[in-house]
Specification:
This protein has helices at about 25-40, 55-60, 65-75, 95-115, 145-155, 175-180, 225-245, 270-290, 305-320, 330-340, 370-380, and strands spanning about 5-10, 45-50, 120-125, 160-165, 185-190, 215-220, 250-255, 295. It is α/β, with parallel strands linked by helices. Helix 1 (about 25-40) links the parallel strand 1 and strand 2. Belongs to the histone deacetylase family.
Length: about 400
């Protein structure tokens, strides 16, 4: 396996644009790519584009009738099929929607192919991570489910055990449901509790179909969960499951919307905790998955202050050239921010925090809501993997 990592990027992904006022502003992609460049990370990772996902690739996950509906909506946005989630407030139809969504999917699929075949150990597509789309409908700002397509491509190439780790604040429902009955895929989602956040799924009792019992894992954290609580939950559940499942590849989704500045959710993570989550995924890929790691973006609606920084950290981690948290953000990039947004970006690559968390083995507090959430997940799935809850 080559030691060189890959960043999948094509300027065309910025055409995935639901229009003015929509939370998923493509400026977040433009600014992330610019920050990667001004930090010099593109000298530590090979940047290349990939073609859009074709009909055969999309059919690995999506119904042909749905793909046809997306194509029609791309040509005639005013006639989009709302029953398929197109032309709604979350997913407004726009000209070229199919082409832009297929291009994002193509980057993730290409990254999956390179990682699986050993061309590169790690690949990143921060434009990807669109985890809510179902086989037959758009949902939650997601038209095509690129994480599921990437995993399906690995399975087609011969993978027998793939782990999908979703760190977005929203439940990774689309990916979970697509592989609900497939024991070759273990989905793990760490998210805000469905009581308080879309898509209102992801309870710990959702553990997979009878044919794949224990291969859906959900950690539903209470609103307001902090750095230390989130990191405690992450480390209390994921490593033991990875060790038991023995994946051949790890696909992780790094939605930036767990941050305390995100306008659409209610967790209170700092950039520093998010960075530690990305570092953990990288470490686990090496420790449990033979180094095969595909890292994707996802949600994130603090499009200037948060998204570009955390995804630049993600690129640096994948490139084995991590950005020190105390790094000053280049003035060149802040000038680019001002030109595009008439606001100034953050000054450093840190929120100034150094989270420390208590490992699960240090004890369980029955009155603590986060510990209750962790225990509920462990009790639901650990016995199905031969582990003690």
């Amino acid at each position: 396996m080559s030691g060189e990592a890959r960043l999948l990027w094509d300027e065309g992904v910025t055409r995935y644009n639901f229009g003015p006022g929509h939370p998923m502003d493509p400026v977040r992609l433009v600014l992330t790519r610019a920050l990667v460049e001004t930090l010099g990370l593109d000298r530590a990772i090979t940047v290349r584009g990939a073609p859009p996902a074709d009909e055969a690739t999309l059919a690995l996950v999506h119904d042909p009738d749905y793909v046809a509906a997306v194509r029609r909506a791309s040509r005639q946005p005013a006639e989009a099929d709302e029953k398929r989630g197109l032309g709604t407030a979350d997913n407004p139809a726009f000209a070229g929607m199919h082409e832009a969504a297929a291009l994002i999917a193509g980057q993730s699929v290409a990254g999956a192919e390179e990682v699986w075949r050993g061309t590169v150990p790690h690949a990143v597509n921060f434009a990807g991570g669109l985890h809510h789309a179902t086989p037959g409908a758009a949902a939650g700002f997601c038209v095509y489910n690129d994480p599921a397509l990437a995993i399906a491509r690995m399975l087609r190439l011969g993978a027998e055990r793939v782990v999908y780790l979703d760190l977005d604040v929203h439940h990774g429902d689309g990916v979970q449901d697509i592989f609900w009955g497939d024991p070759r895929v273990l989905t793990i989602s760490l998210h805000e509790h469905p009581r308080t956040l879309f898509p209102h799924t992801g309870h710990p009792t959702e553990t997979g179909a009878e044919t794949a019992a224990g291969t859906a894992v959900n950690v539903a954290l209470p609103a307001g969960s902090s750095d230390e609580e989130w990191l405690r939950a992450l480390h209390a559940v994921v490593p033991e499951l990875l060790a038991a499942y023995r994946p051949q590849a790890l696909v992780s989704q790094h939605g930036a919307d767990t941050h305390f500045e995100d306008p659409l959710a209610h967790l209170t993570l700092s950039l520093d905790a998010q960075r530690l989550g990305a570092e953990a995924a990288h470490q686990w890929a090496h420790e449990y998955a033979g180094g095969r790691w595909l890292a994707l973006g996802g949600g994130g609606y603090a499009v200037v202050d948060v998204v570009p920084r955390i995804w630049s950290h993600l690129v640096g981690i994948a490139a084995h050239a991590p950005v020190p948290p105390e790094t000053v953000v280049p003035e060149e990039w802040r000038q680019r921010v001002y030109a595009l947004t008439r606001g100034w970006g953050p000054g450093r690559m840190t929120d100034g925090r150094a989270p420390r968390w208590a490992e699960w083995g240090a004890g369980y507090d029955p009155a603590d809501r986060v510990d209750q959430a962790i225990l509920a997940t462990r009790r639901a799935v650990y016995p199905l993997h031969g582990l003690l809850a």
